[in-house]
Specification:
Blueprint lengths: L1 E5 L2 H10 L1 E8 L2 E8 L2 E7 L4 H14 L4 E10 L9 E4 L5 H4 L9 E2 L1 E3 L7 H11 L3 E3 L2 H10 L3 E10 L7 H7 L9 H10 L4 H29 L9
Parallel strand pairs: 1-4, 1-5, 5-10, 6-7, 8-9
Antiparallel strand pairs: 2-3, 3-4, 5-9, 6-10
Helix pairs in contact: 1-8, 2-5, 6-7
Length: about 240
């Protein structure tokens, strides 16, 4: 079985719509959906944003399902000007010997990723993080989820789509007001109250949010391609 983890429901929505024979389970705050992609059984979990929540969610997924490969799929920010919104990449610094073979053809670029404890929302912070870590992308979950997979001897892949460019200035507080970090549910009332007192955040938030459906579509397509490829005669035998 392949495990697929998304931090928030928004990231998972299109993939879940493509899943066949869906059956939902829930333990605590981590929703789990069992189903199939072609002939491959998959378990999809919404694990929450940030290191601690994501690690707990990944632990639950791996405890409840016999997973041989864990794919973490979601959004990331660019730490370098040449990396553009919409680009798909796999986190090269978290590939093990087995999972690296699936990306050796070069169809999906391999980029280094850094995991941050807060949203990195401006060029100055991105530049500083890139200099400190040598990374190309930033997210808030990969390091923690990779650690959980590694502790159990499970192959791990972090597949990311870029949602914000290096030069973007994200309305970080508005995003925090909009999203419930445990499962990524949009919270209209807190967001409305925040924007009422911070109208300058409205345009940057709209710009950021407007691209998310396209980013999700590109991510979903790549995740499905990966799962289908593992269902063939080559990769399937190792899963």
């Amino acid at each position: 079985m392949i495990g697929i983890a998304f931090a928030v429901k928004h990231e998972a929505k299109e993939f879940l719509a493509a899943l066949q024979g869906k059956r939902w389970e829930k333990e605590g705050s981590t929703p789990l959906c069992l189903g199939q992609v072609g002939d491959r059984r998959v378990a999809v979990a919404i694990i929450g944003m940030g290191r601690e929540r994501a690690a707990r969610g990944a632990e639950l997924l791996l405890r409840r399902c016999s997973v041989r490969l864990l794919i973490l799929a979601g959004y990331a920010g660019a730490l370098r000007p040449e990396i553009k919104r919409g680009q798909i990449a796999v986190a090269s610094n978290y590939l093990d010997a087995g999972s690296a073979l699936w990306f050796s053809g070069g169809e999906v670029p391999e980029l280094r990723i850094a995991t941050a404890d807060v949203v990195v929302g401006d060029p100055e912070s991105r530049k500083k993080l890139a200099e400190e870590t040598g990374a190309d992308l930033v997210d808030m979950e990969t390091d923690a989820v990779a650690g959980v997979a590694r502790s159990r001897g499970i192959s791990f892949v972090s597949l990311r789509v870029v949602t914000d460019d290096f030069e973007d200035r994200l309305p970080v507080d508005a995003i925090a007001a909009a999203w419930e970090s445990e499962g990524g549910t949009v919270r209209p009332l807190p967001l409305t109250l925040y924007l009422a007192t911070h109208p300058g955040a409205i345009v940057p938030l709209i710009r950021f949010a407007r691209f998310l459906p396209e980013a999700r579509h590109r991510l979903t397509r790549r995740v499905l391609e990966l799962v289908y490829s593992l269902g063939g005669s080559g990769g399937a035998n190792a899963i």
